[in-house]
């Protein structure tokens, strides 16, 4: 009875949010098919889909988005493995205070992407903090000698921001698995005379890999539709898909509204595809972990 009362209390909020969510989906889908009351012409058409899917600019943005996000997610994956290895060594040898190290690594999780992007911009731009410091100590003689690391066509600043944010998230997801490794695994390592590297490779990493893989797909799914970081640190060409949609929308041309909705649908569909892969991986690795533990 108490649960029913709680559900009744939140029912107005749920109905309110559900209505606007479903109406948003309906509006996007119908607009992509040509039904838009704002325009004088409103009829069924697939021209918007045809225009987007035959657009060179769309495919350039799609490839650029996938490239930037994949590189960032892979780098975060590799660095997370290194961090986990350091934590593993610290727990066995006591090289440093593990809890403090863990808190330092996880700190960027609580910094918004918008703030992170501005921070990277202020640090790494040609007239930023680092370039000014290098100029003052004489390593470079002018600002122009400092490499372009932000607002560049290769997306270096975007990748650095993504890695800085994804690394602590993937670490935070994976470390509990490392902490669950009890003494029976240590005894097994001693029986087979495994070194620290061999123990990590044969025992720790296989146990952590399922969680790492799921975290990888979560990061990839989120980054695909991310907007703030590439908007602040990117260039006008090439652009990621989210920035392309925003720039098209801000042109103020109502005739482009259908194309914008088509691009939104395609972005959402690809994100859902990544989400589906993540769910399948979660089911597979859950069974794997149960068997391993």
Automatic annotation (TrEMBL):
Regarding the membrane, this protein is recorded as: Multi-pass membrane protein
Q: Does the keyword Flavoprotein apply?
A: no
| Biological processes per GO annotation | transmembrane transport
Q: What is its main location?
A: membrane
Q: Which PROSITE patterns match?
A: ABC_TM1
Q: Which UniProt keywords apply?
A: Membrane, Transmembrane, Transmembrane helix
Q: Where in the cell is it found?
A: Membrane
Q: Which Gene3D superfamilies match?
A: MetI-like
Q: What name does UniProt use for this protein? A: ABC transmembrane type-1 domain-containing protein
Record the organism. Cetobacterium somerae ATCC BAA-474
